[in-house]
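Entry 12.
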Amino acid sequence: MAEEIPSEESGGFLYNLVLEIIQSPLNIALVLAIAFLAYKILKRSNEEPVYSPPEPQLPKLRKDFTPEELKPYNGTQEDGRVLMAVNGNVYDVTKGKRFYGPGGPYAAFAGRDASRGLATFSVECKTDGYDDLSDLNSMEMDSVLEWEAQFKEKYDLVGRLLKPGEEPRNYSDDEDEEDSSGTSANVTARTGDSGGGGDKPKSE
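Predicted 3D structure (tokens):
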């Protein structure tokens, strides 16, 4: 009989433990939560890691846009490019597509001028046409400038958001002019160096 006492005590302890858990809704919830977490951990450890290849790099875009021309660049096109305008400048935010692309928390800004929405901290504040932001107060404009500084640091500048009647800039011609002026400057510098060498008196 003495040998059976531990098993009876053990059985009584387990019975009381189960009874206490069943009688308390909080304990039941805790047990279910622990069981769910254990299931998720075991399932994750058995799953093989999924490799997601990086998205192909899009060619750099240099172009000015009207508000209407900007609209298609909301991430739904074949190349998935996402553009946004902030304070009159257009940025390529494709690498931040999880925020600004379809399904992202700021998808409403894609293909639009996001300045007013960023100034007022509202994704519902969308601008379809050109917005000169003249009615924003100083705090709101400071917010726009802070956002613009972040965009300049993180994303590529594409061009300008054109005002009504404003002509787009031809960036390819400008780049050619810069190359030509740079070449001319180099040629002048080299000519100046050779000329200076000719005027230098010979050492005796």
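Annotation: The longest helix spans residues 171-199. Confidence is low (pLDDT under 50) at residues 1-8, 176-204.
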